[in-house]
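Let's practice the habit of predicting before peeking. Look at the sequence and jot down your guess about where helices and strands might fall. Then scroll down.
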Amino acid sequence: MSGVRIGVVGAGNMGADHVNTLHRWVSGAEVVLVADLDKGRATEVAAALPGARATDDPYALIADPEVDAVVIASHDSTHADLAIAAARAGKPVMCEKPLAPTTAECVRVLREERADLVSLGFMRRFDPGYADLRAALAAGTAGVPLLVHCRSRGVSSAPGATDEFSVTGSAIHEFDTVPWLLDSPIMEVSWHAARPTSTVTGLRDPQLMLLRTADGALTTVETFLNAGYGYDIRCEVVGEHGTLALTDPARMVSDTARTRATGYPADWRPRFADAYRLELQAWIDAVAEGRPAPLATAYDGLVASAVAEAVIASMHADGRTVAVQVPEV
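Done guessing? Here is the structure:
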């Protein structure tokens, strides 16, 4: 065995990217099995790895004696059941966000005896820019934080995207990142929509969410799935004595025809490649050493989902302020 033997559930964009990252950039990891309901897709992803196998049964992957740990990157609706199966099998699992579509399903995971084996893929905790921002906040560089401005824009929404998906599929990252940055939980939220873009129908896009944390800071979260121009993530913290903000991660600037320009990535993969690599390396190291992984926990996933449910409740109540209620476990 050359390292921790990994089974990856899901061979779509996210799962395939995790397979590639584990194989090429993470030391001590060996992807041995890939599962997808579309076995042809799983076979195609596995074919790029020496000795890897493919299956259309994710539960067979979890039970396979050659799999030491599991990455879950399948459809959101499958996450809770697969995480429970992995925990019952005694295998560490790194589950992509969200932990589950509802807090009730999150609670089911947390009530499992080995829920401590479940880590959650809130990779922004490992992004170098966000890590520097958090360190600066902890050091008091800009004084007490008063406002946080978060912006998440994409080129185009996925087919069938709904108003709720903008919350559970995009803004949920901010629901983990903001309390992690400020070291203060989100207590109340409200949801608001601007005039929708003319490029899509049946979807209120962009959206604006207001979050108030226990420390009294106010956060604005903008999600714009159909911004068109590129994948653009920004975060600025306004403090009593100054501001802190992520810088543009572009690696090149072009100066031509009296114009200076930088490019935007088409999706999340180039922007957060370092974050995914660092997250997966930290997880693999912890699994190999038999210690808790320094990733977001299943409970962190429950808290983020509770914030998402409060935002959606506000969405369906004309934007009124809704208190965040985290279920007891």
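How did you do? The chain is about 35% helix and 25% strand.
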